[in-house]
Amino acid sequence: MACIERASPALKEILLKQYCAEKPLQIDHHLYEFGSAEYHIKSQASNPLAINLSISTPLLCPGVLPYKLSSHTIEKIKQLCPQLVEIVEPAKEGFQLTLRLNLDQIPRGKDYVKVIGEISTVQSVILSSQLKEMLQNVNSHDAIEGIYKPIKIFYHPREPFFVIRQPQRIIAVFPMRFREKSDVIIATTFFQELMDVASSETWTKAPACTWSPIPPPELVGEALEDLSTNGGFVSFDISSRHVEGKRLDKTVWNLLNFNAYVRYHVKITKGFIQRRMRKRLESLVEALHKTNSEEDEQTKQDQGFKYVKKLIRSSKYKILKQRCGKLSRQIKRIHFRLKIHGIGRFRRRWLRLPKFSSKGYDKLE
Fold it and tell me: Where does the source fall among the domains of life (predicted)?
């Protein structure tokens, strides 16, 4: 993902860490960033806060712009922090520019974070200056037989875009390519909304924006590999008022980072959709668990009711059995308590058993 901010985040972090260290040490770092930019950051042990920063960035348009930085670009770099930044001549071998950063010269009480952030924008200054030199020639008439040849801009090797200079205007065309089908759907929706917003009355002063699934007429004759896309082509119609004064810097930076902004929007949208889907899934699972728990509770209640009914039935049976047993015992007690007067005397008189003597018997012969 490209850095949409002008300051390089990695370069800024290293410079801040070196400046804020209690005991700065010697450093030697190589950095590579989006746009095939390369940094070499080096300091000496004798003075760690005096840093040599070498920068190499590919040309936006090879063959049209010279490899050597123009005087306009050099002046822009010197204006970053005149008291802290010095241009070293010649530049380190293999790099376009070498700067000497005197971080120990940052004035006390000044916001050092802002100062170092300003120094970290050096690559954006170089790229913006190159594109400015082309956009400032809005009124050029370098057409061949009435046909204006597109200029291919390489901010990133795999994501070039085209600039077509015409009288009184410039057309910027971005071929959009994506790896996943879901990215294509999200980006296409974004482009259609962008066209609707650009055509509204609120944004009449903004450059006109158009999107088409097929290449625009201005790219006729270009290589087939540059016209093979799955996300279509986005075009911006830039007039002379968009490159005047302070608007030029904003226009240039927006063009350089349009592709990165679209990919950032697609990534954020996918993340938002995935979060919504997860939340929806969690709510559905929660509702399902709630339903299952209610069913389990209802089942437990039904089982409890059955057990209570069974318990009640068994209790009734036991109570009834106890009552019947009690009643039978009472009846028996009542039966045994019945007495007939004179039965004892009758039994002693008439039911007396005979008594036999215990004398021995003689044997009969």
Answer: Eukaryota
d(CA 211, CA 132): 25
Looking at domain 9-132, its CATH class is alpha beta
Q: Residue 199: how many CA atoms within 13 Å on its side-chain side?
A: 9
Q: Do domains 9-132 and 138-270 have the same CATH topology?
A: yes
SS3 346: helix
* Cβ 120 vs Cβ 114: under 8 Å: no
Radius of gyration of the chain (CA): 49
- Cα distance between residue 255 and residue 259, in whole Å: 8
Strands (E), 245-301: none
d(CA 203, CA 197): 7
231-272 pLDDT, tens digit each: 999 999 888 788 777 788 888 888 888 988 899 899 999 889
Single out the residue of 188, 174, 170 nearest to residue 216, CA to CA. Answer: 174
Beta bridge partners of 29: 41
Whole-prediction pTM: 0.68
**CB contact at 8 A, 41 and 11:** yes
Task: Locate 290 and state its tokens.
Answer: 């709630």
What would the pLDDT profile of 2-25 be if each residue is shown by its tens digit? 457 788 888 999 998 988 888 888
Distance from the first to the final alpha carbon of the chain: 145
Dihedral pair phi/psi, residue 184, rounded to 5°: -65, -40
| Structural domain spans, the chain | 9-132, 138-270
Question: What's the angle, vertex CA 106, arms to CA 105 and CA 110, rounded to 5?
Answer: 155
